[in-house]
Amino acid sequence: MRMHWPEEWTESFSLAGEIDKSRHPLIRGEFLDNAKPDLLIHKPGIMGNNLAAIEIKSLRERRQSDECTQFQRDLQKLAAFCNPPANYEQGFFIVFGEAGDRVRRYIQDLQHRTGRSFARVTLCHHARPGEAAEFEPIT
Question: Are 106 and 59 in contact (CB under 8 A)?
Answer without folding.
Answer: no
